[in-house]
Design goal:
By secondary structure, the protein is mainly α. The chain has helices spanning about 10-20, 25-55, 60-75. Helix 1 (about 10-20) crosses helix 2.
């Protein structure tokens, strides 16, 4: 892993350092955790926006429901429930 310097206010670094210590993590590992969480939150936000656009369009919503019905049918593939 290569090292990189990031400029930030001392107060910001101290806040992140305290948060990292609270999680028993290094500052670098904590930054990685925060980045992953932000990426996940962004993905969820964008997904929710996309679904909102679908549900706002009656034709698109109906098409999605039809597709879901087809996929639901695949659940009844003849396998015994365990």
């Amino acid at each position: 892993m290569s090292d990189t310097s990031v400029r930030m206010a001392k107060e910001t670094r101290q806040a992140f350092k305290q948060l990292a210590e609270g999680e028993s993590m290094s500052l670098g590992d904590y930054f990685a955790l925060v980045a992953r969480r932000l990426q996940r939150a962004k993905l969820i936000e964008e997904t929710n926006k996309a679904y909102a656009r679908v549900w706002a369009d009656a034709d698109a919503a109906a098409e999605l429901e039809e597709e879901r019905a087809v996929w639901d049918g695949s659940l009844a593939d003849g396998l015994d429930e365990e």
